[in-house]
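Entry 14. Structure prediction run on the chain below.
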Amino acid sequence: MPRPASAKHPKRAPSAAKVEELRGFLDDLMLRYHRPEFLGTDPLAMVHALPPGLDREVGALLAALLAYGNVKQIQRSLNILFTAMDGRPGRFVSQFNHHHAAAALDGFKHRFTTADDVLALCHLLHEALAGADSLEPFFLRGCRFDDETDLALAAGRFVENLCAQDFGAHLDRETVITRTSFKHLLPRADHGSAAKRVHLWLRWMVRPADGVDLGLWRTVPASHLLVPVDTHLLRLGRHLGFTRLTTHSLAASREITAALRRVHPTDPTRYDFALCRLGILQACPTASRMEACLQCELRLACTTHRRLARKPRHPLSS
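Output returned:
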């Protein structure tokens, strides 16, 4: 029986010197890219434009869950959705009325996600709020901070508890939760997948308000956050030697987060936004060629660059 990738290639903990080298590189990278002027490449830009409090919290969840596809497409869909909610997604959910919401959302579609999916999600969020002014108490029901070192299981319980709410007279529970498009919109974060969009929302909620992240929650420790692994983070994580895994998975997220936790134990996801900008802006080019690597800001810490530098160049390539 084949062994998993992590068993084939056991990773050694980096030396103290290596950790310090990475910390310097990542801190410089954060200073350069973890800035509000780079929000234009992120759906979070539209969330910052919402009124503070519940509107941003619910708007952030919707923005994170719809964060699949290219940025322009995501932002176009969010603009349509937030306009349908009169620019107040928190109020739309807290004062949810099925007939009014169905009319407001009629015709909405973002790739696989339909108006019916968003309608069902808004109903469940209304039930979860139960008159509260934040979703944090509902999320905390699934947290076991003393027994669990990250939020994978807590995020899974959040989705499970959300789908256990009363579906009311207008929605059929089995129809909704078995619909492929709804399962894609609201993925389980504890079944082995990276569940990037759920962990993206949690990063926005938990990390301090710093012009990029929102810092709306006060109880969940940032040390428990997992890096939201997408194509960019997986590629960069491999270049930096944080993981050898090749698929977007919970295992890859945990390996990359563990490496970043050695650098910053209390706030490992603080580097996520900056690293993503390297990928999105192609500052770290997708093609691994020495010519491209020489222009890349990642090269001083990049295992791929070191590997390419060791390869003998063809005499005709100079």
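Confidence is low (pLDDT under 50) at residues 1-8.
Filed with the rest of this week's runs.
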